[in-house]
Every structure is written in structure tokens, then in C-alpha cells.
Amino acid sequence: MSTGERRVCLLTGASGTLGDLFCRTYYTDYDIVAVCRTRTPAVPSQLEWYVDPLAPEQPLPENDSRVFVVRADLTEPGEVERVVDLALARYGRVDLLVNNAAHVQLHPRGIVDGDAALDAFDPHFQLNVAVPLRFSARLAQRFWMQAGPQNRAANRNIVNVSSISGTEVYPGQAMYSASKAALNQLTRSIADEFAEFGVRANAIAPTTFPALVPTEQVAQSIIELDQSTLTGGVFGVGVEPDAAAGARLADAEH
């Protein structure tokens, strides 16, 4: 169970660039359920901890805040439900769901280059759309729907990690872009439906990171949304407002 001092965050894609940085930056601020398929984030967890080689028996303050690592292939049947059950069993609640896991496969020769793009349709939509949908639905069914007043008091919410590709056209990204556009619309629909029991939903749509926008800025935008009262928006990160179908988060707060 959570001590109640920190918000509980269920984060998918914890082994990726954004997920790893999010864990390293905020593991002392949140109780994080870090969902990863292979590599674990570089922070203390129930699987590993920090040791001073000069005083291996000496406790280190870094180990006082450990993430809870869950290995899962979220595209396999029943894995989303298993992760939700583990998170609720461990902490008793989830305050912030960050759907960050994503499938990316580019097709520089376009969608008519053999069957490559056609074969990539299902993997993109399964991980980029169906998994966030399933996580949102299962958390609602197993916890949030019965906790309306508590949801509002705790400002519980979902942040889906989308992309500028969901609104802009880039060569070779047809399948990825289509899946992110679907995620944007799914986010708006979830926000509308979940308002009944007090859970917000938004998406961030960053440009390429860390090449064009610092990963730290992308992670910070998740925190800003968690601390806000916004819902139903898709907010660009590192792009101009008209390039992301919405205002930047910093502008939307004022």
C-alpha cells in the first residue's frame, strides 16, 4: 500500500528514453509502477538498489524511494489486467496513468512498398491505441468508477503520450501518424466519459526528443498536466500551437 505521502503513477514504456528519464527524475516524488518489457529504468527498485562500495552495509537515502518494476509484454492477452491488478495490490490506488509505451516503425518508401506498411498496421494500433484504451478501461472498471469523490479530491488523471505526427504529415510515418491521431481522439473521448466519475484525460504531443526538444521538457509537461485541472486536450511540446492541434501546455494554463 502507498504511504499516502506520494501520488501513485502507473507508467508504461518505463525502459524507453522518456520513461527512464521520468523515473530517474521523479521517483522520489511519486510511487511509480514502472512497466517495462526488457530493460529496467536506472533507479532503485524492488529488483535492485544502490550500494556504497566503500561502505556496503551503510543504508543510502536513494533506496528510500524505489520504483515498483513490472515486466510485461502489453500486447499479450491478459497482461494489461495483470499490471493493473499488481498496481492496485501494491499501492491500493492509481492517481496518474501515463500511457507512454509505443510502437514505431518507419516506411521511407511509403505504404505501397510491398506489404511492409500493411503488416505494420496491427502492431502500431495495438500498442499505441488499444493498450492505452485497455489500461484506461480496466483502471476505471476496477477502481475509479467506484471512487468519484476521491478521484476529484485526488485530481486523478490520465496522460497519453502522443506525437506531433498525429496532426502533421511526415514521410514514412503513415502508420505511426495514424495511430497517434487515433490516440488523440481516444483521449478526448475518455475525458468526456470519465468526467462522470472525476477522472481527467489529456495527451501531450511532443516533437522529436531529445533531438528537437529536451526529454526533460517532455517529462515536465506530464507533471504539469498532473498538477493542472485541464481535461480533454492534446498539447504540443516543443512545437508551435498550430502545429499540434492545440496550445502549448504552458500557454493553456493562463
β-strand percent reads 5-15%
Which structural class matches the secondary elements? alpha/beta
What is the β-strand count?
A: 7
Distance between the termini: 36 Å
How is the main sheet built? 7 strands, parallel
CATH superfamily: NAD(P)-binding Rossmann-like Domain
Mean pLDDT: 90
Provide the CATH topology: Rossmann fold
Helix count? 7
The backbone outline, from C-alpha atoms, is globular
| Secondary-structure element string | EHEEHEHHEHEHEH
Spatial ordering of strands, largest sheet: 3-2-1-4-5-6-7
Oligomeric form = single chain
CATH-defined architecture: 3-Layer(aba) Sandwich
Fraction in helix: 25-40%
**pLDDT under 50 segments (min length 5)?**
242-254
How many structural domains in the coordinates?
1
How large is the radius of gyration? 18 Å
Structural description of this entry:
With 254 residues, this protein is an alpha/beta fold. It has a single domain, classed as NAD(P)-binding Rossmann-like Domain (Rossmann fold, 3-Layer(aba) Sandwich). 37% of the residues lie in helices and 14% in strands. The protein has 7 helices and 7 strands; from the N terminus they run E-H-E-E-H-E-H-H-E-H-E-H-E-H. Strands 3-2-1-4-5-6-7 form a 7-stranded parallel beta sheet, sandwiched between helices. Helix 1 crosses helix 6. The longest helix is centred in the middle third of the chain and has 27 residues. The C terminus is likely disordered.
